[in-house]
Structures are given as C-alpha cells and as structure tokens.
Write the structure tokens for this entry.
Amino acid sequence: RVGAETRHWEEGKCLIFDDSFEHEAWNRSAELRAVLIVEAWNPGLSGVEREAIGRIIAASESFNAKWQP
C-alpha cells in the first residue's frame, strides 16, 4: 500500500513506488520474498537541499544504530 492505493506484485514484474509517501508491504505467503531498494535524488532538489537531507539521513541512521541489538 502506498497512500490509499493498494497494488499487488506480479511475478516477473517490478513494483516501483515513491517511498516518500506513507507505505507498507506484506508477504502473506510461505514463499521467501526479497526486496531491492534503489534510492535516487529528486532532480528538483538543489545542492544545499541534498546536503541537508544527507545530514538528516546520516543522523537518523546513527541514532537508530544505537538502539539495534
């Protein structure tokens, strides 16, 4: 689900979405599921905005690492 839209993966096809929207996924089967995450900068962001977002992400990752077992 991304926002209010629910879509289903089809074998042999990719499912691509903008994860800046609220989203969640389920695997309600007994089959193994692998997820490949690819991140790309929005081309409309300025260099300053990319730098700021990069710092926020780094700080978030550092904070989260302290709480991982």
